[in-house]
């Protein structure tokens, strides 16, 4: 079971990191449009639509990655003081009551939304129209990935309730903990002030 959970974590991580490269493409797209508009005096009507679809794709495809890394918003004011079993109980209830119905509805509605767009070959309302149906296909795909990662998180909650501690996760980048960093380099605040 542990291998399966970590495999889903790796999948979510890989997809999240792969789609993170859209930031580079979007930066180039925006820079080119600024250059074209203000230097060459030749703006592109399709560029804003492409930017919006790129950002939407980036954020939707990062959902499962963010869930795998525990990065979604949580009320940590109280949650951090709870014992692991209490945390798992709270998480499990919230996953069942809110997460599962919401993500299933998102995925179902996204699939319908995509099918309708594909049937009419929907495109943007600009002089140079871009097809919208590939972008709308991202909604159910992102929903399925988020649902898969959510099921893994539910299994982790159940395991924590049984064992009393959280099972391991796939590791990735972490925020810098200044206190841990100081311990690693044997620094103190007095020495840093000099």
Jot down its keywords.
194 residues, mainly alpha, 9 helices, 0% strand, flat
What is the end-to-end distance?
52 Å
> Pairing-aware structural class of the strands and helices?
mainly alpha
Number of strands: 0
Low-confidence stretches: none
Helical amount: over 70%
Total count of helical runs of at least 4 residues: 9
Q: Which geometry do the CA atoms define?
A: flat
Function: Part of the tripartite ATP-independent periplasmic (TRAP) transport system.
Pfam family, one: DctQ
Subcellular location: Cell inner membrane
Organism: Pelomonas dachongensis
How would you describe this protein?
The chain is mainly α and 194 residues long. Helices cover 73% and strands 0% of the residues. It contains nine helices and no strands. The chain has helices at 2-20, 22-38, 47-61, 63-68, 76-79, 84-119, 133-163, 178-185, 189-193. It is flat. The protein starts with a helix and ends with a helix.
What topology emerges from the helices and strands here?
Blueprint: H1 2-20, H2 22-38, H3 47-61, H4 63-68, H5 76-79, H6 84-119, H7 133-163, H8 178-185, H9 189-193
InterPro entries: DctQ, TRAP_DctQ
Subcellular location: Cell inner membrane
Function: Part of the tripartite ATP-independent periplasmic (TRAP) transport system.
Summarize the structure.
This protein has 194 residues and is an all-alpha fold. 73% of the residues lie in helices and 0% in strands. The radius of gyration is 22 Å and the shape is flat.
